[in-house]
């Protein structure tokens, strides 16, 4: 290379801290990026874990409730507790990343996830809920730190890498949901063996992250503060209108997704569909999400403004929900497909907007923490509110009408968030 060497800080800057690495750390990072297969494997394996531990529970809630003698309200907490801690855990993720480094926190999150999965199979209802707390917190750490890490290590391919990890995340959820009951039968150990199996996936992903942790030792604790070009310090995302628009889009699309996760099979059953068929349609909904999650971020990365994609995904979700209201059984497969592609596309777009609206890796980490803290806390109330409204009215019409309002609000803030600007 001729001329003076370029400053590596724009690429190698610590996503979580805005720090310039030591010379040894910078050299190690460049060596790893020169052979990115190991890094890519770590990202994919971590992403497979980001929904599997949640999706594997839903098909087994009946058996879990019967095992502990749980009421309907207590049973709903089996799935809602981890979702709440997706938001609560996201609040501390940026601080942990700054304190210990993204690689170490991601590695620890995978170990925590495996421990939480195993805790849920202990013969104690307290361990069941406590394990849910650990699972939700661990997934929150993965959720928040991954966009900043991708922005740092793949600055020119951020949208494509977001597509890869979002697709892997939803693929993990699809496989976990589909395999829950077959694993229960194959392992011969009841629901405990089926749930506990997914701790192995977390262990494999943690092993894949070990090289990253070792490389981070050459950087964490030996950094100097890096000031962005122009001499200005990073802005606070909490004071940015654009950051709030991205955050609200993240939260609203999460809300409509978790309402479906909690109640979609029940809506079908309440309208006369048998439980086994409802389960198959629900699994199909999860499967087709992979298509939207993979394609939409790729398209978003090639567009200056992502407004057409916002319109597309919100319209598909709204049409699917409207179909559930007017002809749930007759058009079940169509509504499931529309909702699935729209859901997958929406979450992929929300995560891509975090990266595209961020001017650098530091901002991406901060915006990711903000969007997922507020977003998942907002989404956690969706399933409970929908269930309460259904119980009060005796019908699914009112809850679906409210979610259609959520779709309209997501369209409005999404159009603002999709403008070609950065925080």
From TrEMBL:
Main location: membrane
Cellular localisation: Cell membrane
PROSITE patterns hit by this protein: MFS
InterPro entries listed in its UniProt record: MFS, MFS_Cyanate_Porter, MFS_dom, MFS_trans_sf
Pfam families in the record: MFS_1
Domain Major facilitator superfamily (MFS) profile, residue spans: 35-423
Key words, A-Z: Membrane, Transmembrane, Transmembrane helix
Gene Ontology cellular component annotations, sorted alphabetically: plasma membrane
Membrane topology per record: Multi-pass membrane protein
Record-annotated membrane-spanning stretches: 37-62, 68-93, 105-122, 128-150, 162-183, 195-215, 246-268, 280-300, 309-327, 333-356, 368-390, 396-418
GO MF term set: transmembrane transporter activity
Domain of life: Bacteria
Protein name as catalogued: MFS transporter
Annotated organism of origin: Streptomyces cinereoruber
